[in-house]
Amino acid sequence: MCGTGRLSAVTEPFRIALLIDADNAPAAKIDAILNDLAEYGEVTIRRAYGNWTKPELKGWIGELHDAAIRPMQQFDLTAHKNASDMALAIDAVELLHAATPDAFALVSSDSDFTPLVHYLREKGQAVYGYGREKTPAPFKSACTRFTVVEKLGGDADEETEAANGEGRTRKRSSATTGQALKGNARLIQLLRNSIDAAADDDGWALVGTVVSRIRNQSSEDPRNYGYSTWTKLIKAIDLFELKDEGTSAIAVGDRRNVRK
Fold this sequence. Notes:
The chain has two domains: 15-171, 5'-nuclease (Rossmann fold, 3-Layer(aba) Sandwich); 178-254, Nucleotidyltransferase, domain 5, CATH 3.30.420.610. It is built from nine helices and eleven strands. The chain has helices at residues 30-37, 60-66, 83-98, 114-122, 137-142, 178-182, 185-198, 207-217, 230-237; strands at residues 15-21, 42-50, 70-73, 103-107, 126-131, 145-148, 158-163, 166-171, 204-206, 240-243, 251-254. It is elongated.
């Protein structure tokens, strides 16, 4: 008699559509972006938009081949108008309904994509944004998570950016100082609100719970300030207390409210 077997369930990968505005993104950071996205899932769609006849995009060519990114050609039909932006937006909407990825990743420093991000998120899609530090706040805030590309690759790294086919190396600043972080009123309020909402009667909240609350309401990423984790950033600010560091029960409390 033949035995019966149980088929093991196959888990489908979390599929991400990566759309790159090549005119407003550094080619040298694409490997770091792909590595970062691997934390969320598999990048099954990879497209970069631009007028590839322009010498300004010459540095992208090798990166496209190495990273298996499909170049989407869009000629500049009118002076001072970027047709690539429109092509990217149209493709995003088409992919949403035809390819149905689980999430989108948009690489750009252009706030013109803010309405597109709003649309995708209203349709239930996560949108991971990547752009330069100078990216306007509306685009940053609209994303599920926004990461400053200059900060990818370490707390303090060297970035070699291709421009007109020639490489130039620039030193990036290290982590933002605790004093500077204290001056970021929006960030401090975000942390205090999240800690307060998750705190017990003694004012302590599990860091994991606090981080979850932050991610559910903000696109902030600690790496944008030069810190690999929220715990390291919180510690640097020096307005909060940490206990049980190095354990899964690590907790944080607002120094004004905790009972020791």
